[in-house]
């Protein structure tokens, strides 16, 4: 069995790898910093940033741990609901609401992770999908989520009592800061000793076990970390969308997360970011086509899997023999 | 008590659909090493083909029971030949992603033309009405679905476990290269296997058309429950899939009677419990 992201990372000297990634990171940050000056609709970029972080968190699990989660929407939705509830009903400040929401996702990661990592490969995907569906039905019935209506009209408030999040420009930079924080954390994780062990498990789990690594612990930790960061993205998204609804927990959302990462490039560092922008832009511009958007997404899935498995960034990296 | 028996019957019917679908998933997984995410979509297509046959060609339920699985099975074989076969040798997960994409396309196209509401499909005249069994009233069509599904499941079991063709199939699952060396056309067998699995799903779709109405998304949520059934039962054994499917349907029916709030979630909760106690599934081999 060939590993999922076998050929995405070209062989390159370690120092040059880090250098390329740093240059790309600088470029991305610079581009994102000037967005409010360009007149691009900020709501669109903020939404894309939340999904970019979500896709990066998902990619940590599939690209570096070899685990395809088909239920990552449960972290997005759970953190979103908790943050929204904390803001609206408990009246917590934004920073506390984000902490509570992210902590909720972390707790969910522990609970579902213990169950899900008991099986590998295809079973892991089916289990995560089933767990997220279980959660979907729970949220459909519990009163605090307001069922089909969702939690609406969420107050944005002042972050740390200073930054007025109702101001789009301020909100943009807060979301950007959150995204960069999450992105750097993932980047650091991938390049840490922990990340190296994770990659070795992806390549050959039996050998990692024989070398004395408790691979289940590593996988569980990666799963919890990925879920927590996905939850962080969900908490941030509440401030952008000002609602939390069942859409965010539904399996179609999990599918979109997979699609974003696949389009950008599984197992690449910047791929999920590019993929998220591509898919969110596509949804914006094709909104008038109604149900055809689903069909188009399906076609992208099929085309990507059959002919374009490296994704946008993976292809670029492969062509220039760089690591991105 | 009447309500309890009625829910048990509903449970048995859902169980027959779980059994037919998880059986197809297991057969396909054995040969192609792919979890067919499009299984819910082809189940829906089966129901729609029956609907088209009746409304555009005037062909009724009984012929549809044979024609629809064949039509959808041929469609499945076309998909296998044009797309799925290119994935051999790649990671299993690509098969999941590809078939997920196919499911989105199929469901999206149907949703576009037929919306999300249900289209009625009436019960054939021969199976209308019901019988009074003394302890409960049995609608004949529902009894028919359970009995017929059980027969189809057992026939499939017989085909795979007791015939020469089935022996080839099982051998090719174990070691395709060796079976090819003996002169058996394995790629053709793979195509036929996918057609068989898809045809079983389409058959379940036809059976459910008069009960659940014909809707573009009728298979979308069902397939996730079937995944949980497959995780609980494991995919190593055909009989295991059949028994697990029917049992879980009954458990779901009982839950609907005793604690209706949990009827949507009981299968998933059971999956969690099984994973905690016996991670390899009830009948499956560890994977």
Oligomer: heterodimer
What level of helicity do the residues of chain A show?
over 70%
Q: How many individual domains of chain A?
A: 1
Report the β-strand fraction of chain A as a percent range.
under 5%
- The CATH topology label of chain B is ABC transporter involved in vitamin B12 uptake, BtuC
SSE series of chain B: HHHHEEHHHHHHH
Order of helices and strands of chain A, N to C? HHHHHHEEHHHHHHHH
Report the mean per-residue pLDDT of chain B as an integer.
Answer: 90
Instruction: Report the biggest beta sheet of chain A as strand number plus sense, adding barrel if it closes.
Output: 2 strands, antiparallel
The number of E-state strands of chain B comes to 2
Classify the secondary structure makeup of chain A into a structural class. mainly alpha
Report the biggest beta sheet of chain B as strand number plus sense, adding barrel if it closes: 2 strands, antiparallel
Description of the structure:
Chain A is mostly helical. Chain A has one domain (14-320): Orthogonal Bundle (ABC transporter involved in vitamin B12 uptake, BtuC). Chain A is 71% helix and 1% strand. Chain A has a two-stranded antiparallel sheet with strand order 1-2. The two termini of chain A are 25 Å apart. Chain B has 287 residues and is mainly alpha-helical. Chain B has a single domain, classed as ABC transporter involved in vitamin B12 uptake, BtuC (Orthogonal Bundle), CATH 1.10.3470. Chain B has eleven helices and two strands, in the order H-H-H-H-E-E-H-H-H-H-H-H-H. Chain B has helices spanning 2-32, 39-56, 61-82, 92-114, 140-162, 164-174, 176-181, 186-212, 220-233, 238-258, 266-277; strands at residues 130-132, 137-139. A two-stranded antiparallel ribbon of chain B has the order 1-2. In chain B, helix 1 packs parallel to helix 5. The longest helix of chain B is centred in the first third of the chain and has 31 residues, at 2-32. At the A-B interface, helix 5, helix 6, helix 11 and helix 13 of A face helix 4, helix 9 and helix 11 of B.
């Amino acid at each position: 069995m060939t590993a999922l992201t076998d050929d995405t990372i070209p062989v390159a000297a370690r120092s040059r790898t880090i250098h390329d990634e740093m240059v790309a990171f600088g470029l991305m940050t610079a581009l994102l910093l000037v967005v409010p000056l360009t007149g691009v609709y900020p709501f669109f970029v903020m939404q894309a940033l939340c999904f970019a972080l979500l896709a990066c968190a998902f990619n940590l699990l599939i690209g570096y741990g070899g685990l395809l989660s088909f239920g990552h929407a449960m972290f997005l939705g759970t953190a979103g609901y908790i943050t929204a509830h904390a803001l609206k009903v408990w009246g917590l400040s934004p920073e506390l609401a984000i902490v509570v929401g992210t902590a909720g996702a972390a707790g969910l990661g522990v609970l579902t992770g213990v169950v899900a990592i008991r099986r590998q490969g295809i079973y892991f995907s089916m289990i995560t999908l089933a767990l997220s569906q279980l959660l979907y039905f729970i949220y459909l019935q519990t009163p605090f989520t307001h069922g089909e209506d969702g939690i609406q009209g969420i107050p944005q408030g002042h972050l740390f009592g200073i930054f007025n999040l109702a101001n789009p420009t301020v909100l943009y930079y807060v979301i950007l800061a959150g995204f960069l924080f999450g992105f750097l954390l993932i980047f650091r994780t991938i390049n840490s000793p922990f990340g190296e062990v994770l990659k070795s498990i992806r390549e050959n789990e039996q050998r990692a076990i024989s070398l004395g690594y408790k691979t289940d612990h590593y996988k569980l930790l990666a799963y919890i970390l990925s879920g927590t960061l996905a939850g962080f993205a969900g908490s941030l998204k509440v401030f952008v969308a000002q609602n939390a609804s069942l859409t965010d927990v539904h399996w179609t959302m999990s599918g979109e997360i997979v699609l974003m990462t696949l389009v950008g490039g599984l197992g690449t560092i910047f791929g999920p970011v590019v993929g998220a922008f591509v898919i969110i832009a596509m949804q914006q511009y094709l909104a008038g086509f109604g149900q055809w958007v689903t069909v188009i997404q399906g076609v992208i899935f099929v085309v990507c899997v059959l002919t374009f498995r490296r994704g946008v960034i993976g292809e670029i990296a492969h062509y220039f023999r760089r690591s991105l | 008590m009447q309500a309890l028996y009625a829910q048990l019957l509903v449970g048995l019917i859902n169980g027959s659909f779980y059994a037919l679908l998880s059986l197809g998933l297991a057969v396909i997984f054995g040969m192609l090493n792919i979890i067919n995410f499009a299984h819910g979509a082809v189940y829906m297509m089966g129901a729609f083909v029956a609907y088209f046959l009746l409304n555009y060609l005037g062909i009724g339920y009984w012929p549809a029971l044979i024609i629809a699985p064949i039509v959808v099975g041929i469609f499945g074989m076309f998909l296998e030949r044009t797309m799925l076969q290119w994935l051999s040798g790649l990671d299993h997960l690509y098969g999941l992603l590809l078939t997920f994409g196919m499911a989105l396309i199929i469901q999206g196209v149907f949703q576009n033309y037929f919306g999300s509401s249900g289209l009625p499909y009436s019960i054939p005249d021969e199976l209308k009405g019901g019988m009074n069994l003394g302890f409960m009233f049995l609608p004949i069509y529902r009894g028919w679905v359970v009995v017929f599904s059980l027969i189809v499941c057992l026939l499939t079991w017989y085909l795979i476990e007791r015939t020469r063709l089935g022996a080839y199939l099982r051998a090719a699952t174990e070691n395709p290269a060796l079976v090819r060396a003996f002169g058996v056309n394995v790629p053709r067998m793979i195509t036929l296997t996918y057609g068989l699995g898809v045809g079983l799903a389409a058959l379940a779709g036809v059976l459910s058309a008069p009960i659940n109405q014909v809707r573009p998304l009728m298979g979308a949520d069902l397939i996730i429950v079937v995944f949980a059934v497959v995780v609980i039962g494991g995919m190593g054994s055909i009989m295991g899939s059949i028994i697990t499917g029917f049992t879980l349907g009954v458990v779901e029916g009982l839950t609907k009677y005793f604690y209706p709030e949990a009827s949507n979630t009981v299968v998933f909760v059971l999956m969690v419990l099984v994973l905690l106690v016996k991670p390899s599934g009830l009948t499956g081999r560890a994977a």
